[in-house]
Every structure is written in structure tokens, then in C-alpha cells.
Known about the structure:
4% strand
Amino acid sequence: MLTSLTILAAAFFVAHVGLLFTSFGKNGFQKTKYLWSHITLWITGVLACVITLLFAGKSVSGVIDVFDTPMKSSLLIVLALVLSLIAHTIVKTMVLPKYR
């Protein structure tokens, strides 16, 4: 189950990166792809949280064992949201003005 969840989280992260980079191009800014890039990042954070909730403290991985409480696990979701906010701020202030 750990392997399946990890592969799923990695797939969502790869989808996030792909959608983010293809949101900007010769056709201009594509809002729908950009939104989905954020959604896939949030899903990645939720999956990471679920992985740590299920497997922390079971000596499966030293990294997973760091998130040994529900509060620490929830920080992964917060991290995904903060990264999304930072990326959105960068795009809004530095990238979008070039498309206008």
C-alpha cells in the first residue's frame, strides 16, 4: 500500500509540474491548466499526509517517521498550500505581466 500511495503522490506531483509549465506558452496564459496545476499540488500534499498518518512510527522510513503525530502530518498539507501561494504570487507579479 505504501508503494501504491507513493507512486500516486509522485504521479500527481509530476502532473503538477507538467501542468504548471504548460500553462504558459505561445497561446498565452491558460487559466484552467494553471488551476489544475494547483489542485494536483494540493492532492500531492493530502496524499503525503495520508502516507505519514498510516505509516509513521512503523519504521518503514526514517523520513516518514519524522511525521509521527497528526499535527506534524498535517503540516504537509500546509506546506503544499504555502508552496501554492508562493508560486501563485510569483506568477501574478512576475510572469503574468509579460503576457499582458
